[in-house]
Design goal:
Structural class: mainly alpha
Order of helices and strands: HHHHHH
Shape: globular
Radius of gyration: 17 Å
Number of helices: 6
Strand content: under 5%
Largest sheet: none
Distance between the termini: 48 Å
Number of strands: 0
Oligomer: single chain
Mean pLDDT: 88
């Protein structure tokens, strides 16, 4: 698929599926690390009014891992919005995150 697209766009010649998969893994790893730091940040704790925001971390980790499974293992990486709204587990992660966040804040 990328090879065919490279014929249409010369800028794609410098990429392959393995490289893009590694980049996605690195970016999502950084996202997880930053979310964990964010959830324990003193500024966020003061603004939100709770020091238990880290309770939402498992939902973010599970959601990222499921997204990686869908894109890397099942090769279902079309439109991200359709992927998220069409996967019950990802919807459960989002719902669980929202529920815990609302319970912690209010």
């Amino acid at each position: 698929m990328l090879k065919m697209a490279a014929n249409h766009r010369p800028s794609l010649d410098g990429y392959n599926a393995a490289y893009l998969d590694m980049c996605m893994g690195m970016v999502l790893g950084c996202l997880l690390a930053l979310y964990i730091i964010y959830s324990a940040s003193a500024e966020v704790i003061a603004r939100i009014g709770t020091d238990r925001l880290y309770y939402t971390v498992p939902f973010v980790v599970a959601g990222v891992m499921r997204y990686l499974q869908l894109t890397l293992v099942e090769r279902r990486s079309g439109a991200p919005t359709e992927l998220v709204t069409g996967d019950p587990f990802l919807l459960a992660c989002i719902g669980g995150w929202l529920l815990v966040f609302v319970l912690l804040v209010y």
